[in-house]
Amino acid sequence: MTGFRWRVRVYYEDTDSGGVVYYANYLRFMERARTEWMRTLGFEQDRLLRDTGLLFAVRSARLEFLSPARFNDLLEVSAGVRERGRASLVFHQQITRHGTAQRPLCTGEIRVACLEAATFRPRPLPDFILKELPDVD
User: Fold this and answer.
1) What does pTM read for this prediction?
2) Using one digit for the tens of pLDDT, what is the confidence trace for 34-54?
3) For the chain, what is the domain count?
């Protein structure tokens, strides 16, 4: 998969009583990877809100849990744009153990909407953001 890759360590607080990553935390890891990717492209969420009045919100998420991550694993979370809409992006993301060629632990399709912060209504993705995103996977 092309796109961005970000590493995260699994802490005790990320796990359930069985010592595996609690399912909702995979969404947190994916959110952080998308945020870090936007940051590397020069887009800070707080500045976008302040300077342009736009924000991004998750509209839908579909995850497949394939194999458990465990306490102290070093994970690699990838993010790539699968689809571009007028006011949305669909990201394909996956989480693997860093340094292994194993199959993904979790995969996801996350649709993110571009919204006008004052009204929470959809707004077209600005050209200055679109031009920085790589071509669709």
Assistant:
1) 0.92
2) 999 999 999 999 999 999 999
3) 1
